[in-house]
């Protein structure tokens, strides 16, 4: 292979993540899921913690936040884009993590929280709080609709998928080339690929896009791309 591998990431990455990845690979992105904001008639009372795992979760809440809602809460954010969105709204997250699993590892075992989230979410936060003494309130502030993009997979050396719905959206109108490396962000995404007849080349132990990209580079360096 001449030059950097060209990888398609099937979502829009944060500027920070993209800049780090571009040091390793040629980065392309495609939008597979388009967020749709859900209106909030009235914000619930602030809990001890407010948890946010996506910047999209803040869109419908930002007017309330700008008026002072949540200023005395402890905030926890997943991802640079959520953290940056909070900072734009004048809030410094007490816990900043790369993924939900890393976030729950840093939370106490007892507390109360409001979880601002999408309708289509992983169960990591809820599973953790259900296993410990947490009082959790969930407020769904957005959902995602598939875009079914047209993609020529042959332009790329590998493709990274981020969720089961992400897989379904991207593969809806596109034929998958045999022997094209597919990379799954986690086990549920890997199973969705298998359900489409695609065996993922990489499923990282931690759902981190930098980690999976590094693992891909290590495998092609060792000559194992299938």
TrEMBL record:
Coiled coil: none annotated. It is an enzyme of class 4 (lyase). CDD domains: HemD. It catalyses: hydroxymethylbilane = uroporphyrinogen III + H2O. One of its GO terms (molecular function) is uroporphyrinogen-III synthase activity. Keywords: Lyase, Porphyrin biosynthesis. Pathway: Porphyrin-containing compound metabolism; protoporphyrin-IX biosynthesis; coproporphyrinogen-III from 5-aminolevulinate: step 3/4. Pfam families: HEM4. The keyword Nucleus does not apply. The keyword Ribonucleoprotein does not apply. GO terms for biological process: protoporphyrinogen IX biosynthetic process; uroporphyrinogen III biosynthetic process. Its EC number is 4.2.1.75. Gene3D superfamilies: 3.40.50.10090. It comes from the Bacteria. InterPro entries: 4pyrrol_syn_uPrphyn_synt_sf (IPR036108), 4pyrrol_synth_uPrphyn_synth (IPR003754), UROS/Hem4 (IPR039793). Belongs to the uroporphyrinogen-III synthase family. Catalyzes cyclization of the linear tetrapyrrole, hydroxymethylbilane, to the macrocyclic uroporphyrinogen III. This is Uroporphyrinogen-III synthase.
């Amino acid at each position: 292979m001449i030059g950097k591998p060209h990888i398609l990431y099937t979502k829009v990455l944060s500027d920070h993540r993209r800049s780090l990845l571009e040091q390793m690979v040629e980065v392309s992105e495609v939008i597979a899921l388009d967020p749709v904001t859900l209106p909030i008639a009235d914000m619930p009372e602030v809990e001890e913690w407010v948890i946010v795992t996506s910047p999209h979760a803040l869109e419908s809440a930002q007017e309330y936040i700008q008026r002072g809602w949540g200023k005395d809460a402890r905030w926890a954010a997943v991802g640079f884009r959520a953290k940056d969105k909070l900072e734009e709204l004048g809030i410094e997250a007490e816990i900043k993590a790369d993924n939900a699993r890393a976030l729950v590892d840093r939370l106490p075992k007892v507390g109360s929280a409001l979880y601002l989230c999408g309708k289509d979410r992983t169960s990591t936060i809820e599973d953790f709080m259900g296993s410990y003494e947490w009082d959790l309130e969930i407020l769904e502030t957005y959902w995602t609709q598939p875009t079914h993009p047209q993609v020529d997979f042959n332009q790329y050396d590998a493709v990274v998928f981020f969720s089961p719905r992400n897989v379904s959206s991207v593969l809806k109108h596109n034929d998958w080339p045999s022997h094209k490396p597919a990379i799954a962000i986690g086990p549920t995404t890997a199973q969705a690929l298998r359900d489409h007849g695609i065996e993922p080349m990489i499923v990282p132990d931690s759902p981190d896009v930098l980690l999976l990209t590094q693992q891909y580079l290590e495998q092609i360096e060792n000559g194992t791309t299938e």
